[in-house]
Amino acid sequence: MTTTDWIIDIALLLIVFRQMREERLTARTILLPLGIIGWAATNYLHHIPTAGNDLVLAIVFAGIGIAFGLFGGLLTHVRYAGGHVRIKASLSAAALWVISMGFRLGFAVWSSHPSGGAHVAHFSAAHDITSSQAWVVALILMAFGEVVVRLGTIVVRGQLLHARADREQTAAPAPAPRPGAYV
Description:
The protein has 183 residues and is mainly α. It has one domain (3-162). It is 70% helix and 8% strand. The chain has helices at residues 3-18, 27-44, 54-74, 91-111, 114-126, 132-171, and strands spanning 23-24, 76-81, 84-89. The chain has a 3-stranded antiparallel sheet. The radius of gyration is 22 Å and the shape is elongated. The N and C termini lie far apart (74 Å).
């Protein structure tokens, strides 16, 4: 693992810890994690291998990332207050994020050592995974699926709350005039 790999993983971990305090859902809240994962994708996804079970591995890992992202987004507190959507990662949402990021980081460290690399090579041969690039793609797509789905879930929940607040505001009857007031 390079220093850049460590920085990316740590930055993605810090994002969710920052969200453990309530904050407004802003463009920055959405674009920062997308930017980090987009940068990682452009630097690590050179091609998607399709030989053997490489594509199956990528799809399975992407599906796991999507599931983590969906649950993480559903476990994040989203509320509408003062005309703004506010979010706060729950302890459960943060735990899911740390588990998934920790898995990817741990796997990368473990597989770069001789004994871990030998296990990955043996597993790959036994399951017709033809290249080490398949593992890189699978891990990046897992992270990408988690980030995109988590953010999407939070944004949709925020938009639903915003729409409900707008409906309630327009449906509220006008206050009755005070007795003796001019109309």
